[in-house]
């Protein structure tokens, strides 16, 4: 995995802006810990940081292709194209000659052969930029589900782009200004496709390309979900899912560096781990390495809450024993979660504050520990979205509302009746943002986009809409978070359940079939019943753990008290000081949803300070 950055301006000599291009590229050092490169020409500069995964010696970037001794195109690329060997063979048969073993060169040659339409042939997770020297044209491409990030800022005569906002903010032409629209994106758990937090900044939308030349900017969609009749019966559907999973995991085990799986002990990650173990042993005679994250005394003192019903560690250990994995347990302490430098690093990794607090920090620390052993981690993300695994998908008051079901579920928590992380912000400030109106409008827009089949009954139509908005508004938040917190350490996170073939197939499986046994993720559990322990199959979904150590919450309260005593805290004009007073005087609330209100306010303050943000509403 890598970081990419670039600056195209037809009105200036970008080639003479080497210090700026270096500064932009250096912000992405965490994404690429093995190498750094620049390519400069009159009107364009491209930067790249590399974490070597495939062709360790020959995959340096930016990478150019020559014809008749002259360069014709150059690429900076981030990701993995899992079908690159098949594409390489096809391109070789068409006359292309390769000088590396890397998938990067295959992608560039694919562009030269099929132009922008090459995106339709690529299977994997990727974001890349090609500068076509002959046409003076820049092409930006992002994978179908948006697993890999790609931000850009349109300028009067060009564009500035990068893997993360920090790369753009390192260019003096892009300033950290945030308007009401950006704040809505920041506070939202339903992301608007293409919308970024910072003003004059956007994301290349998933499944889209962006072409920039002297004539302007053209956006093109090359992939979208489609509604198709599902003609397979239940048994055939289960077999097809199993077959797809085996093929997908096999392809995602390609690596020239150490690889592992992130194992939570849930059915999603356990299935991936079991299949990975099967392939590793069959093809290489090697055992798979697995990791689980927990906290000191978490399993022994665990208390169920509204969404977490069991600790991960015992289930992960059972799966690891079954597949004979080299299993590593990561144990975190409250002091690590509250470390000042670590929490700042988590903020910088994401370029914005979030309400997820210790879940973000523990994810960051987990990636740091995994990177000491492996460079690639295969995870179980995206299974809940495609198989139907979230509890709010089964609550009538959530799925029948005229707003995103998970947003309704947030307001059902005693600690977040106004939404996650918003209880301590000034009422007038939040009224200007008007999250309720934003959510309602965004939901209606998303539902109107959802493709449907003719003849669906009301339940099937509703649940297909819920599936669509989950994939396009909820999932992007999780994918972006996973990418940023892992790539901060140069750890590549692979997500087999995000394979577009599996996503397309499951989108068209009827809801009645997805829940044929009256439970969540019925199809997945049936497909891997022979691979994972019965205890895992019967386990109720428990999301990423939060610490239950009271010391962590008490430290948060102490920090909140110090923040309001400091009259110079930049967050104070946005704070409901009376709500803070009631929180501090009302006794410590240890539930995770209440805690998020404090975590978000502290993170917002840290963000305003570190990024010198100009809030304009």
Short characterization:
This protein is α/β, with parallel strands linked by helices. The longest helix has 30 residues, at 458-487.
Question: Helices and strands in order, then pairings?
Answer:
Layout: E1 2-9, H1 18-26, E2 35-40, E3 44-50, E4 63-67, E5 70-81, H2 84-93, H3 103-114, E6 124-132, E7 137-142, E8 151-155, E9 158-162, H4 165-169, E10 177-179, H5 180-187, E11 202-203, E12 208-213, E13 216-221, H6 234-252, E14 259-262, H7 267-284, E15 289-295, H8 298-301, H9 312-323, E16 326-332, H10 334-337, H11 340-350, H12 358-371, E17 376-378, H13 383-387, H14 396-399, H15 405-411, H16 427-433, H17 435-449, H18 458-487, E18 492-494, H19 500-507, H20 511-514, H21 522-527, H22 534-538, H23 550-565, H24 577-585, H25 592-611, E19 614-616
Helix pairs in contact: 2-3, 6-7, 7-9, 12-18, 23-25
Q: What do these coordinates show?
A:
This protein is α/β, with parallel strands linked by helices and 617 residues long. Helices cover 42% and strands 17% of the residues. The protein contains 25 helices and 19 strands. The strands form four sheets. A six-stranded antiparallel beta sheet has the order 2-3-1-9-8-11. A six-stranded antiparallel beta sheet has the order 4-5-6-7-12-13, covered by helices on one side. Strands 16-15-14-17-18 form a five-stranded parallel beta sheet, sandwiched between helices. A hairpin with a 2-residue loop joins strand 12 and strand 13. The longest helix is centred in the C-terminal third of the chain and has 30 residues, at 458-487. It is globular, with a radius of gyration of 24 Å.
């Amino acid at each position: 995995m890598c970081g990419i950055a670039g600056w195209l301006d037809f009105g200036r000599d970008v080639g003479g802006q080497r210090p700026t291009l270096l500064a932009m590229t250096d912000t992405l050092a965490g994404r690429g810990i093995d190498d750094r490169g620049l390519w400069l020409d009159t009107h364009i500069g491209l930067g790249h940081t590399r974490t070597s995964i495939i062709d360790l010696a020959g995959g340096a970037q930016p990478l150019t292709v020559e014809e008749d001794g002259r360069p014709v195109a150059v690429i900076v690329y981030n990701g993995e194209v899992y079908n690159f060997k098949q594409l390489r063979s096809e391109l070789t048969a068409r006359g292309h000659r390769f000088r590396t073993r890397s998938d990067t060169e295959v992608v560039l040659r694919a562009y030269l052969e099929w132009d922008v339409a090459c995106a339709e042939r690529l299977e994997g997770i990727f974001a890349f930029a090609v500068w076509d020297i002959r046409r003076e044209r820049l092409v930006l491409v992002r994978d179908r589900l948006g697993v890999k990030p790609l931000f850009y800022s349109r300028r009067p005569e060009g564009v500035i782009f990068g893997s993360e906002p920090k790369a753009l903010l390192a260019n003096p032409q892009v300033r950290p200004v945030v308007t009401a629209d950006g704040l809505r994106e920041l506070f939202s758990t339903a992301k608007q496709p293409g919308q970024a937090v910072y003003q004059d900044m956007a994301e290349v939308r998933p499944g889209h390309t962006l072409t920039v030349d002297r004539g302007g900017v053209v956006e093109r969609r090359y992939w979208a979900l489609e509604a198709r009749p599902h003609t397979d019966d239940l048994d055939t559907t289960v077999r097809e899912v199993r077959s797809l999973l085996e093929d997908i995991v096999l392809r995602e085990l390609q690596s020239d560096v150490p690889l592992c799986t992130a194992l939570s002990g849930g059915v999603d990650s356990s299935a991936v781990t079991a299949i990975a173990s099967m392939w590793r042993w069959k093809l290489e005679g090697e055992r798979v390495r697995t990791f689980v994250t927990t906290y000191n005394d978490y399993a022994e003192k665990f208390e169920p809450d509204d969404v977490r019903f069991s600790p991960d560690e015992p289930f992960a250990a059972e799966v690891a024993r079954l597949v004979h994995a080299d299993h590593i347990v990561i144990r975190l302490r409250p002091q690590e979660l509250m470390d000042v430098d670590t929490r700042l690093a988590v903020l910088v990794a994401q370029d914005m504050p979030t309400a997820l607090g210790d879940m973000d920090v523990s994810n960051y620390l987990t990636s740091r520990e995994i990177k000491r052993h492996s460079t690639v981690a295969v995870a179980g993300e995206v299974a809940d979205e495609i198989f139907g695994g979230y509890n709010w998908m089964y609550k009538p008051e959530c799925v029948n509302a005229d707003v995103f079901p998970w947003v309704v579920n947030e307001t059902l928590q005693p600690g977040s009746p106004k939404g996650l992380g918003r209880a301590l912000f000034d009422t007038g400030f939040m009224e200007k943002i008007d999250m309720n109106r934003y959510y309602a409008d965004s939901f209606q827009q998303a539902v109107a986009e959802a493709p449907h089949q003719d003849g669906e009954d009301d339940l099937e139509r509703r649940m297909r809409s819920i599936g669509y908005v989950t994939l396009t508004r909820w999932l992007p938040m999780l994918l972006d978070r996973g990418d940023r917190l892992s790539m901060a350490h140069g750890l590549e996170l692979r997500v087999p359940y995000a394979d577009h073939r599996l996503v397309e197939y499951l989108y068209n499986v009827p809801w009645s079939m997805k829940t044929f046994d009256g439970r969540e993720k019925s199809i997945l559990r049936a497909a891997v019943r022979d691979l994972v322990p019965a205890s895992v199959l019967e386990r109720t979904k428990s999301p990423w753990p939060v610490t239950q150590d009271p010391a962590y919450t008490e430290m948060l309260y102490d920090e909140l008290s110090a923040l309001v005593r400091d009259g110079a805290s930049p967050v104070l004009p946005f704070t409901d000081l009376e709500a803070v007073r009631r929180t501090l005087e009302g006794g410590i609330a240890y539930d995770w949803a209440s805690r998020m209100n404090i975590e978000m306010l502290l993170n917002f303050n840290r963000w305003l300070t570190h990024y010198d943000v100009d809030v304009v509403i």
